[in-house]
Design a protein that fits this description.
The protein has 282 residues and is of the alpha/beta class. Helices cover 28% and strands 30% of the residues. The chain has 2 domains: 2-89, Elongation Factor Tu (Ef-tu), domain 3 (Beta Barrel); 100-255, 3-Layer(aba) Sandwich (Rossmann fold). The structure holds flavin-adenine dinucleotide and FE2/S2 (inorganic) cluster (FES).
């Protein structure tokens, strides 16, 4: 059991949860994630490690309430306990000797970009951060990012805060004005696709962190399969970080859409794929 020691509501949809998990805190590195199970009837779901404290023996996650399990987590209170937290999982981000880096976070992806940008800065790179949200009230992590980085650009779709528009508008300006060694983007698949398309034209290496559907997180079920460099890869064990110029984003979006429609999922024929939990409900 993992007792919740801090719970904050960052915006109406997104909460921050700090819970006891000493072994994970001791091993955690930026870019890794955990798989949680709230209670005995709960499903396993992945969240990025936002922060960790080796002295307190805690890990912090930031969670957008989109479905059953994420809503359950966001409804929990300090003092309650999460049944399982497994991790750290996935490869850590490589942050040494890179140079000039732009880290981009969109929506809840900002919370996933935060540990990467922080580690990039701690490794001595020159870091610029772009964060974007639909509107000011949905923006998260601005204060935490500004604690370690003084080059922070903010965009909102509706212009209620920062620059009106998308993160790619600021990215384009930065790429026109200067030379960069790496762009790291985390957010909605469409955002990562647009960023990767743009940086390809400027020949800037680009990494993305893929949030494909995960079940076991250990490479066994095939749920998180992505087409990468023309071949199947598993986001949980091969990633979650991939070269954005080699990811088949259209395939990734197509797979994500299928899981949104449970009837479609049950009707579809997934040749050679695991069907855990996909029983047709009439
Ligand atoms: C490596 C990794 C790291 C992640 N880190 C974070 C994080 O730090 N914070 C955060 O809020 N979310 C993160 N996610 C997404 C999170 O895992 C999903 O939102 C969660 O699994 C949804 O579970 P649920 O039971 O609440 O929703 P469900 O009831 O299963 O589904 C509800 C809705 O959420 C969508 N959904 C389900 N799984 C995913 C998914 N993997 N990605 C996007 N949408 C999904 C479904 O399509 C559906 O529309 C991460 C995903 C991965 C793979
Ligand atoms: S989550 Fe099962 S193979 Fe990756």
């Amino acid at each position: 059991m993992h007792k919740i020691v801090r719970k904050e509501q960052l915006n109406p949809e997104i909460c921050l949860v700090e819970a006891e998990a000493k072994d994970i805190a001791l091993a955690a590195e930026a870019g890794q994630f955990v798989i949680l199970r709230i209670d005995e009837t709960g499903e396993r779901f992945p969240l990025t490690l936002y922060d960790w404290d080796t002295e307190k023996g805690t890990v912090t996650v930031v969670c957008q309430a989109v479905g059953v399990s994420t809503k359950k987590l966001c409804a929990m209170a300090e003092g309650e306990a999460i049944l399982d937290i497994a991790g750290p999982l996935g490869h850590a981000a490589k942050t040494k000797n890179i140079g000039k880096v732009i880290c981009i976070g969109g929506g809840v992806g900002t919370a996933e970009a935060y540990p990467i940008a922080k580690a990039m800065q701690a490794s001595g790179n020159d870091v610029t951060v772009i964060i974007g949200s639909r509107s000011k009230d949905l923006l998260i992590c601005e204060e935490d990012i500004k604690k370690f980085c003084d080059k922070v650009h903010i965009t909102t779709d509706d212009g209620s805060y920062g620059k009106k528009g998308f993160v790619t508008d600021v990215l384009k300006e930065l790429l026109e004005d200067g030379s960069y060694d790496l762009v790291f983007a985390i957010g909605p698949v469409i955002m990562m696709k647009m960023v990767s398309g743009m940086t390809k034209k400027y020949s800037v290496k680009t990494l993305v962190s893929l949030n494909s559907i995960m079940i076991d997180g250990t490479g066994m079920c095939g749920g998180c399969r992505v087409r990468y460099d023309e071949k199947p890869h598993f986001a949980c064990v091969d990633g979650p970080e991939f070269d954005g110029h080699l990811v088949d984003f259209d395939d990734l979006m197509h797979r994500g859409d299928r899981y949104k429609d449970k009837e479609k999922m049950a009707d579809d024929h997934y040749e050679g794929e695991c069907k855990i939990g996909l029983d047709k409900k009439k």
